[in-house]
Amino acid sequence: MTGRRQPGVSGTTVPVGRRPAGDDGQVTLLVLGYVVLAVVLLLVVATASGVHLERKRLLALADAAASDAADAVDLEGYYRGGTGLEQGPPLTDAGVRAAVVDHLGRLPAGDDVVVGASTGTPDGRTAEVELATRVPLPVLSALPGLRLRAAVDIVVTSRARVALAPAG
Question: Which residues pair with 115 in a beta bridge?
Fold first, then answer.
């Protein structure tokens, strides 16, 4: 070592090329903490994105089922009389539910979907479809060694209204 010295942190002089004692490993711990924080943040965002995408898929499925169920007109009741085009074609709870179950049965993605109890028609002109599914949290379920089977229940409701205009 040469005899050159530079001022230290507390005003003492420290030989050039040496660090003050007690600072070893501080940066490593800081970097490690930031890496752990970034990984946890990434996992949370990935899990939330997976659940959000599954909800959007279920909502699109409910929209399609509601549109299909709105076409499920009770033709027998319509032709029996008592309703005209000004009131709209009649829908029944059973007809809407049957149309939704039939629609879900034709789709491969409809196996894990449950038709909700409020599926039906509140006014005879609106098809209301409630669908529910259980979504496993992708990151927590994929971690090896964890016996954690975390899942989120998602319930969506969609409505489609039948509206006919008289010809003429």
Answer: 131
Return d(Cα 58, Cα 65) in angstroms, integer. 10
Q: What does DSSP say about strands 151-161 and 126-136: parallel, antiparallel, or unpaired?
A: antiparallel
In DSSP notation, 92-112 reads -HHHHHHHHHHHHHTSGGGTT
**Are the beta carbons of 14 and 20 closer than 8 angstroms?**
yes
Q: Is the separation of the CB atoms in 103 and 64 below 8 Å?
A: yes
- pLDDT per residue over 36-67, tens digit each? 999 988 988 988 898 999 999 999 999 999 99
Predicted TM-score (pTM) of this structure: 0.69
46-50's contacts with Cβ under 8 Å and 24+ in sequence apart are 46/138, 46/139, 47/137, 47/138, 47/139, 47/140, 50/135, 50/137, 50/138, 50/139
